[in-house]
Structures are given as C-alpha cells and as structure tokens.
Amino acid sequence: MSPVLPLPVTPADRATCAATDILRMVGEKWSVLVLAILADGGPYGFNQLDRTIEGLSRRILTRTLRALEADGLISRRQTPERVEYTVTDLGRSLLPLVVAVGEWAIENAPRIEAARQRGGSR
Length: 122
Fold this sequence. Notes:
Blueprint: H1 11-16, H2 18-27, H3 31-41, E1 44-45, H4 46-52, H5 58-70, E2 74-78, E3 83-87, H6 89-117
Antiparallel strand pairs: 1-3, 2-3
C-alpha cells in the first residue's frame, strides 16, 4: 500500500493541502452544527438560526455563515423580508462523511476514554 502522504511532510505541503483546510473547518466548534441544521430544515433566516443555537454569539454566527458561504457549503439569498441561508449540494455531500466520523467517535468513546485513563499520551 502506498503512503497516504509523501514523506517528509513540509510546511508548504501542509499549507497547500485541501484536506487540512477542510478538516480545520470541520473541527471548528460551530461549522458542522450550522451546516447540519441548515441541511435538516433550511432555509433559515439569520435570527431563526440565532434562536436555534444556544450559546453561539451573533458575531460568531456571522463569521461561521460567511466562512461556510465562502467555501460553497451554504448559499445566502436576500429576500424582501430577510436574508436566507440554505445548504448547497456541496455542503450536503460533506454531511455523511462528518456523520460517519461522529458515529465512529460515539462507538469508540469508551475505548478512547479507557486509553486516556491508562495514561496514553495526548
């Protein structure tokens, strides 16, 4: 089997890696949650999203929506009444992969916690 990455991995390799960029976004605290909410029941207005997600400031919601839109994962549409956000086909295609990671995490949480209790390095 060939290696996943060419070795050695340089800073330039990391900076230009598309996977690293997306994994950062997926690992961001609010992005996947906003994406999942929009996929479940969009379109949503800004205030509707703000009320739906407790603990998320309006400033961070704005930043998250802008980043998701810039990546093409959601779309923004101005109507006479409000701004609406919906998930795009690209965003919808990412969700099953994120759900699979979440399912893996839930399934393996006891094993991970046991390793942590044994003092595994982090």
